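Section 3.1: Structural characterization of target chains.
Under the original work plan, the team committed to producing a structural model for every single-chain target entering the pipeline before any wet-lab resources were allocated. The record below documents one such target. The sequence was received from the expression subgroup and is listed exactly as submitted; it comprises 332 residues.
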Amino acid sequence: MTIFRVLHLSDLHFAATAEAVNFVDVPRSQLATEMVSRLRKKTTEITFRYPTTYDPSAAEDIAIVAFLDTELDLILISGDISTTGTRSDLVVAKEFITATPARGWLSERNFPTLVAANVPIALLPGNHDRFRRASFPFGTGGTEFDEQFNEHWWVGQNASLLGLLKKDSDWIAFVGADFTLHEKTLDPREEAGRGHVSEHILKSLRLLTKRVRESVQQRYEKSPAVAWVVHFAPEFEGLDEFLVLENDAVLIAAAAEDSVNHILCGHTHEKRVYQARTQRSVTVHCAGAASAYKAPQGNVVQIVEFHAEQGVIQKVVTQPIAVGAPTHHTAT
C-alpha cells in the first residue's frame, strides 16, 4: 500500500487589502468593540460592501507548513484563493502561488510563497474567484481568474485533471470541477455564495475520470485511485441556504456510480469530514478557512494521507493544522 501525502487548503481570500472584515461577518455582540478598535488603533478595517479578506500571519504559516514538510507529494487548493475575481485581488493570490522564493518560504518582496515547498501545486476556482466586481452585488462568471492562473487552470468553467501522481507501484489522480454559477440569478445573494452542479460539467468530470483511468491502465497496466475536488461542499448539513451547492445529490450519485469514494472541498470555512447523506460510500473532506480573516472557527489547513493500492483508496488519514497563531517566524 502506498501513502500519498497532500496538503489540502481552501478559502485563502487573498486581496489587495489585508485584515479587512465585512460587518456582516462580525458577530453582533462584537461589532461595537471592533468598530471602536478600528477607530482607536486602526487594527481592523470594517467594510460594508467589500467581502472579508485575509490574515497575513495565517498565509505565512501556511507557506511555512509546506516548506518544512519534506514528505509532501502535492499542494491542493480547493478554491476561493482570492477575495474577488478582480485583477487587484488575484495578483496578490497569484504571488502566493507562483512567486520565486528568495529566502526560505519568502519571496524577494518578503511575501510568503508556496513555490518554496518544491512540490506540484494544483488548484481550482471558488465562487469568490469568479466575482466580476469588488463590491456587492458581485456578479457571476468572472474570467480574470483564468487569465491569472492559466498555468494551473486553463479550462474555464469546466472539469480538469488537477494532478496525477505515481509513487512506488501505485497511482492517484485528482480530478476537479468548477461548479461556480455562470448565469445571473434573481437574488444577488445567491450569486455571491451558491454553486450549481450543471449537467454538462458533471458529464465532463465523469468522462475525464474515465479517460484518466483508461489511459494509465493502457500505458502502465495499473489503474489509478481517483478523488474528486470541488469548491462547494455537497450535502453539508446546517449550511445557510445562500451557500449551498444546488443539485449536489446528483454529484454524489455520480461519484458513487463511478467508484469515486472521496471528494475534497472547501467553501464553508468549517473543517468537517462526513459521509454523504444520500450515498454513504462517499466521504466528503471539507477543509476549513486557510487564511480568511477572522474565520469563526480559526484558520486551519489539513494534511491528507491517501492510502492507495491497486487503484483503490483504502484509507484516508487527515491531520488538521492550525495556522495564524501570533508566533513570530523568521525565514532562514
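Residues 2-17+55-323 form a domain with the Purple Acid Phosphatase; chain A, domain 2 fold (CATH 3.60.21.10).
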